[in-house]
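Lecture 7 notes: from sequence to structure.
We start with the chain below.
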Amino acid sequence: MNLTAEFLTSIAEIPAQEWEAVCGTDYPFLRHHFLLGLETAGCTTEDSGWQPCHLLLRDDSGSALAALPLYLKSHSYGEYVFDWSWAQAWQQAGLNYYPKLVSAIPFTPATGPRLCHRPTISREQAWQAALSALETFAGKHAISGWHLLFPERADSDYLLAQGYAQRRAVQFHWVNEGYGCFDDFLATFASRKRKSLRRERRLVEEQGLALETLEGDAISAQDWETFHRFYQLTYAKRSGHGGYLTREFFTRVAAGMGSQVIMVIARLAGEAVAAALYFRSSDTLYGRYWGCQREFDCLHFEACYYRGIEYCIEQGIARFDPGAQGEHKIQRGFRPVETVSNHWVADERLRRAVADFTRREGPHIEAYRREAETLLPFRR
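Predicted structure tokens for the same chain:
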């Protein structure tokens, strides 16, 4: 089958129905509404360094058979796979690391589908056509390489077998073992760890905080405005800027995601003081953003972790991915899991260097994951 590549400078160039016929709607971060919203809210633009460049593969009749989220990047912010040392090495070699191509969900280190395709073609057919198009495009536009971030493991392993370097990392995820309630989960903890977690939850109550979990349309326009303010305050304290996402992203884009968005709001004497935002698919809860007006002991753990675990148990959701980093999650029952990325570099010398780096780094990542497992709070 002959497949023709097309690169879109905006996802608005393809109707939502056609995009989602290929990518589906279950994984929230590949929905047409979500990706278009990032553009129209000013988060993914040429000026922000996230120029959309999505790849479509069409058959001879013009039907879209495969799609890959793709961005032309002029920096490495908002990716969560850190390659600043590679950029520095390129510069020292007298080469330009930017622009580069990145297949990822912007500002979202959540593993999920990347190259989606209809069942009329195989994964191998889709990838071979996509890789050929990507390398040709990179050569034509003087792009240093292509980076695939947080793909599903089967795709990453396939690309590794094709010579695309695989880089490994560790996140901490919660797994639903069929618990009937939160206490069932706690019953798997060693006694001392169980008491510590209960003390954290009790401390939240003792500060007079009341939390509620809202879904979709139950989240009011005022809740979205308040969340954006909390998000900005928290980013400003942590990073000195107001965050990657704009007010419009929360009040219009996230608010339009229906039952795929969940907000936990903490109130003190009726006033909202903090909130956590989640997205969900049919089998995974994704903890994404947190913001607060002021700090309270253990409130972050309650809003961002324990309420998420309770939601998964109540809804029968299999997995809870609370985001990148955070070793403090281990003692709260989040298991270390491996995530992957793949990397292709146009310059053959630097391609070999990246492949060597990822090979040498891999065993250290695995050793770290194994060590982290020994710190889990569960009974031996």
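Points to note: The mean pLDDT is 96. The chain has two domains: 4-170+337-373, 177-317.
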